[in-house]
Amino acid sequence: MSRTTIDYGIDLGTTNSCIALLNGTGTDIIENNYQAKLTPSAVWMDGKCRLHVGQKAKERLEDDPCNAFSEFKLQMGTSHFWTFQNSGKEVRPEELSAEVLKSLRGDVEQQKGEVMNSAIITVPADFDLPENAATQRAAQLAGFSYVQLVQEPVAAALAYGFQSDSDKVFWLVYDMGGGTFDAAIVQMRDGIIRVVNHGGDKNLGGKQIDRDIVNNILVPAIAKQGYTLPDFKKGNPRWLTAFAKLKAAAEDAKIQLSRTTTASIVIPELCKDEQGNAVYFEYDLKRSEIEPFIEPYVERSINICQKVLEEKRLGTENIEKIIVVGGPTLTPLLRDKLSGRMGIPLDYSIDPLTVVARGAAIFAGIQRQETELPKPSRGQFTLDTPHQPVGVESEPKIGGRVNAPDNRDLTGFTIEFVELKSMWRSGIIKLRSNGSFSTELRAEQKRMNEYLIELRDAVGNLQEIVPDRINYTIGTTMSNPILTHSVGVATANNEMQVFISKGTPLPRSSRQRHYTTTEVKRGDPSTRLRIPVVEGENTKRANRNRLIGSLEINGAQVRRDIPVNTDVEIKITITESLEVRAEAFIPILEQVVDKVLVLVKEAPDLDVLEREINKEKERLGGIAGRSRSTNDQHSEIILQRIRYEQTVDHIENALAAARDGDPDASHECLNRLHELQTSIDEIEDNLAWPMMVEEAQEEMQRAWNIAEEYGDDNSRHRLQTLEQEAYKAISVQDRDLLQRKMEEISTIINQLLLARPEYWVFLLEQLEEMKGQMTNRSLAERLIIEGKRALNSNNLDGLKNCIRQLVDLLPREQQEAFGNTMPRGL
Ligand code: ADP
Ligand code: MG
Fold it and tell me: How far does the centroid of ligand 1 lie from the alpha carbon of residue 665, in Å?
């Protein structure tokens, strides 16, 4: 069967994957070989080096953990790889993902007898560009010739919105999966769904909860049983299998606890202890025991939702409902807290575990499949039409052009559309001499309308035309996706220069100029220009964002040498399918260099991470004390959030997990740390503001005292104007403006003071008191004597000269401190 639209949508999940097919206005899930709707995202290599995907592989995670892998989606876009012990083969995350995709593709072939060449694949909206690029590579490896990526919350919104009558409403999509979290606000308007804002966390999901259950409940329970299990932790290769079993048991029990209040865990042989005895583990896990560990994650997810609303100045009353997606949302505590805290009704009427695949299939139904159209054979007529397969109109316009083979004359030809079910006819339409036409179709609600195309020649004989039919469904469509994180480069002074900002509709290109800082020598790849690329929203401190790769031009790519300080124009393009491309234009060489973007997320060094964490903990302790003493409300809110979300504990847990060999925990740790750093920066800035205001007020008072004594009308008038401007800056909390105004006020004071000889006398006295701290005591003493002599002989220039030299003898910090009390420009 050939399809005119893509129709198949794949949810390539961390834990489970799923494939759906659009069927009219509904969707069907394609079941796998085990008649299951969900295929676990797990791959196992058996003893004969054959690969298995899904349930069978998931089962082997416990007893063959060196040949069975899962949760590889969380490693997409990194340089991590796994090694199958059975074959020694190294595999990257996209290769494992490709196996899952192949398996789903195989299910379609088996169930539908169709070979899938194109597909829509969903990705978390929070994914960075390297993760998306790796997903594209996975699709290629799986043999798809065309693939388009769609963000998971967008797909979920479409599943709910496709046949909905709601209009002019906002929805919040809350999607928590196996290891990722997305919150997106969408708006339904005029039959189009638009993503308004997004927030998320790449490391928030069921996996974190399972890890907490194992480490905080099960491992301590085993310790109490009296077996000798030396160094019983996940990182120890000896206990790899035991920990894989514990994780699986924890997950099963957790899922059960969404229905019951107690779940019993029985592992007949967890492992063998030091004496060779089988360790029998039995434990009754209670819902009340795991809830304290789930709560901070829910807290964090709700805070993200609130931020997403606040950023668009939307209140909870503006949101009609929360669309709930993903396995963990079946947890009663999560649902209660989410609806309680947000005060918005939840909607989970479409199965939270398959809704993303269903939405992806609907999206696929909107995408025309050019590549799959049957090729016209010689002598056939063809139809070119920009016709959209889905839209809100019940009488959609259709136009296009019929192309005749061998330039045959189309005079007298007609075209007519006949809907197959209702037998509605468009009536005969005469083609214009160039073959073009336009008319309207009539469509019925709640089903796919299929129109046969009848092309007739001048004497009324039917002619074969390709395609011979078109489809149209009345339904909601999607507007262009938006970029979910700003993309830019880190500059030498640690600022982020943004190329494309968060919220920009895609596709989008952006150009910027850069100057080379090293020489690039033709033919020598070791000489290169390298600019770090970051994703994130902290434009003031680039290192708080995620490093996703670099823009690179090396000697092998250029026609001639590029000297230092050469102008290079870089263009970055991000497509609708979240694909990114970058090229550089070097004007002096008149050369365009393509593929200059290297996307990869390097795993952070754990020792460096640990040092950074300790530094931040200290910083946090310091500002917490200061915030309490200043009673700054805003800072207190941020600190409370850090406490409720147990941010510091989670950072440390992630570090411990990374040390225990969990490959994505190091990124989890780093991302959380960046966030903590940003929060602490924010508090520091907050606390600095009241102090800055107080200092400004004191300085203005001092300025008036000086102006009253030494100033004239002119200087007082200038001071008055500046004072008004400074107060305005205070009222709008504009730090930079206040600073500028205070500098201008200082200049006036300085000018007034510098004109007064008594001021110089005062400075000399001050410096004399500080002579004990000067770097060269004997020189200082000589300068003071000289200064006094100059004073007595009314030699002002001589006095100034001595003072300048004395200031130079102060230690650096003292110079600065002294400089503040001294007129500028001394
Ligand atoms: P993904 O899309 O990332 O693969 P899913 O939406 O399939 O994730 O959710 C998988 C996660 O949901 C796993 O961590 C699983 O343990 C958890 N989960 C599944 N069912 C339940 C349930 N009934 N209660 C709590 N958690 C659940
Ligand atoms: Mg999911």
Answer: 19
Asked whether residue 824 carries a pLDDT value surpassing 50, the answer given is no
What is the DSSP code (8-state) at residue 178?
S
CA 534 from centre of chain: 11
Bridge pairing between strands 8-12 and 118-123: parallel
For residue 825, the model assigns a pLDDT of 40
Task: Tell me how many degrees the CA angle 378-383-387 measures, rounded to the nearest 5.
Answer: 155
823 lines ligand 1 (CB under 6 A): no
User: What's the rounded Cα separation, in Å, for the pair 410 and 430?
Assistant: 10
- Minimal CA–CA distance to 589: which of 550, 563, 552? 563
What is the tens place of the pLDDT at every residue in 646-655?
999 999 999 9
**Best mutation site among 330, 331, 334, 355 for ligand 1, i.e. most ligand atoms within 8 A of its Cβ?**
330
- State residue 628's pLDDT score: 81
Give the position of tokens 């974190």. 208
Atom of ligand 1 nearest to the CA of 257: 24
The whole-angstrom separation of Cα 251 and Cα 723 is: 64
Residue 116 contacts residue 143 (beta carbons within 8 Å): no
| Nearest residue to 193 via CA among 475, 486, 507, 578 | 475
- The Cα–Cα gap between 420 and 754 comes to 94
Q: Is the CB of 14 under 6 A from ligand 1?
A: yes
Which residue has tokens 């990526």? 149
Phi (first) and psi of residue 518, to 5 degrees: -135, 165
Measured in angstroms, how far is the CA atom of residue 14 from the centroid of ligand 1? 9
| Tens-place pLDDT, residues 237-250 | 999 999 999 999 99
Identify the DSSP state of 431: P
Q: To the nearest 5 percent, what fractions of the chain are helix, strand and coil?
A: 45, 25, 30
Residue 345 has pLDDT above 90, yes or no: yes
Lookup: tokens for 768: 């004399």
Instruction: Tell me which amino acid residue 764 is.
Output: L
